[in-house]
Write a structure and sequence with these properties.
Two copies of one chain form a homodimer.
Chain A lengths: L9 E6 L13 H18 L7 E8 L11 E7 L4 H17 L3 H12 L3 E4 L3 E4 L10 E5 L14 H19 L4 E6 L14 H4 L3 E6 L6 H6 L8 H18 L1
Antiparallel strand pairs in A: 1-3, 2-3, 2-7, 4-5, 5-6, 6-8, 7-8
Chain lengths: 253, 253
């Protein structure tokens, strides 16, 4: 109850471009690749400090999404504990693995590609889709096809397809819904220690990914009181809407 | 992983007044008492249905707080499961009780009244304060002095002091910060079943209360990714600011 938490951490702002008004959807691929490499290099560097247990990379766009700077930027916050929400996700992945002896995210990729209904984009290394149990309208996840728990171990040849996946998703979201405000969050493994519990099996059961949360609805009393979510837009409709808008745009071009 | 959840529930809207523009801070005490009795009576009635496991009473004020109706109202949502966030709170209370053999909320009341620094209001039956670990600026909790896990078992003589506590808190918040948007959520025990786990000890370890969350800051990527909160206003400063503003207002009156 009264554990002390050491006052250690880091907060970095990653400036994505010199252009004050350029959105991520309009970036050149090499700019996005540089941004992703900055995420990777800063994470690798900070993980050399054994006091840091987790490194969260995220992006807030728009004042409703909590952005306090307009210039295109991402953020990185390193914490001396594994955050509550990350622990919950790791424990959930471990529980699934104990039942199935398979990574839940690898299973989700197979299921989404078989179903096809919620896919937003696919390339040689990444799949993007509106998840089956979307909490928010037009929520999207980008998953690497190669099983890997840690974003910071992404291979050099996986950076260009991730840049393409990210820009495609940003363009589909932006052109369908008029550039809505959003957050995206990189979900990745924590620093490893020889401990019991969910740390032991992360290499097998966890799978890094990016979650994109458009801020179209408000969090109200019901969500605060329950941690349940009310989502009025089924993910199949969101994916179909984005595909149709893109098709219309291509035909008009 | 694949539990089915039955499609059972209830959603009720409690209209607080015929006056479309009247805020809760401006209500007469007897109106607030009627509202609180409606919370109690509807909860008692719905709990007769054994399929309902939890009844959440809450209020959203302002579009940022998720309100979709302007007319003063509260809401009640009954669910066929105990919500995730409620389970977490119940488990936390149980864990404290296992260590101390005391209710954590009774201990918080004692500690807050001893410290005095974060108290916003006190009457014969209720204490209102900005909690020590406030997640949000000007967050406030109203706790009954009498240990009781269930709001729906509130005694008739406790309704008038709760109405006074609620109006005082609403007035202090409203006059200090210019009627900010907010949510409040009634935290109370779930339906009881003869089960293992946190259900067994709720009578001893849980304590109903109201949590008031002013919507002054935004939930951004860091909060979504961690379930941690960044609060720029210490609770002592929030309580002092509300006390000072009230003192100034009384002197000017």
């Amino acid at each position: 109850m009264y554990d002390m938490m050491s006052g250690i951490g880091a907060h970095e702002v990653i400036i994505e471009t010199p252009d004050h008004n350029r959105k991520l959807r309009d970036a050149e691929f090499d700019e996005i690749e540089l941004m992703l490499r900055a995420y990777q290099e800063r994470t690798q560097d900070l993980f050399q400090d054994p006091r840091l247990r987790y490194i969260l990379v995220f992006k807030n766009v728009g004042d409703q999404a909590g952005a306090s700077l307009y210039h295109p930027h991402s953020q990185l916050i390193a914490t001396p504990v594994t955050p509550k929400k990350v622990q919950e996700e790791l424990k959930g992945a471990k529980k699934y693995w104990e039942q199935k002896e398979r990574c839940v995210y690898c299973d989700i990729i197979r299921q989404e590609m078989d179903a096809g209904l919620r896919i937003v984009d696919e390339n040689e290394a990444f799949v993007s889709f509106c998840p089956y149990a979307s909490r928010f309208p037009f929520e999207m996840w980008i998953l690497p096809k190669r099983h890997s728990p840690d974003f910071c171990k992404i291979r050099a040849e996986e950076i260009p397809p991730l840049a393409r996946a990210l820009r495609t998703v940003m363009r589909k979201l932006g052109s369908s819904l008029g550039n809505p405000q959003f957050n995206y969050i990189l979900h990745t493994g924590p620093a490893r220690f020889a401990r019991t519990g969910y740390w032991q099996t992360i290499d097998e059961d966890y799978h890094w990914h990016i979650e994109i949360i458009p801020r179209l609805t408000k969090i109200a009393g019901f969500e605060w009181g329950t941690s349940f979510y009310i989502n009025p837009t089924p993910p199949e409709e969101a994916a179909a809407y984005m595909a149709e808008r893109e098709y219309t745009r291509e035909r008009e071009a």
